[in-house]
């Protein structure tokens, strides 16, 4: 299935300034969950008191936006494949400070950005040895909402 047919597809997806949909087609990523407009998870839950009727509802706080991207790595040579994998593993290092994950939305002028940190492990599944793989990266966002900036 091509990424263009997936609901989480956006253009100009970048992480820490690195294009995740480069022109050379060596790899391409798209959203699996947590794309711009997705509601964050909330902190808290209703309390059930055994002797009281119903639940006691309390305010909830937007807390966490889990983000997940999936991609395909396609290389024409084993050396190019290994170089691409090493570069992506370095980019998605989970011990680094949070960095900007950004994309251009469907209208072509609106950008969305959020600070996020990759959550190890980065899952890599070779399906054609040393030439093609599926890669999956989970992120933990610093803020629960994307920053949306309308373009002109």
What shape does the CA trace take?
A: elongated
The largest sheet is: 8 strands, antiparallel
* End-to-end distance: 33 Å
Mean pLDDT: 86
* Strand percent estimate: over 45%
CATH topology: Elongation Factor Tu (Ef-tu), domain 3
Instruction: Report the CATH architecture.
Output: Beta Barrel
- What count of helical segments does DSSP give? 1
Radius of gyration: 19 Å
Order of helices and strands: EEEEEEEEHEEEE
E-strand count: 12
Q: Are there runs of 5+ residues with pLDDT below 50, and where?
A: 1-7
CATH top level is Mainly Beta
Domains (count):
1
**SS-derived structural category:** mainly beta
The helicity comes to under 10%
Task: Walk me through the structure.
It is a single chain. The protein has one helix spanning 78-91, and strands at residues 11-15, 18-19, 27-33, 41-43, 47-48, 55-56, 61-64, 66-74, 99-104, 111-128, 132-141, 147-149. The chain is mostly beta strands and 152 residues long. It has one domain (3-35, 64-149): Beta Barrel (Elongation Factor Tu (Ef-tu), domain 3), CATH 2.40.30. The strands form three sheets. Strands 1, 2, 3, 8, 9, 10, 11 and 12 form an eight-stranded antiparallel beta sheet that branches. Strands 4-7 form a two-stranded antiparallel sheet. Strand 5 and strand 6 form a beta hairpin.
Short description:
The chain is mainly β and 152 residues long. The chain contains 1 helix and 12 strands.
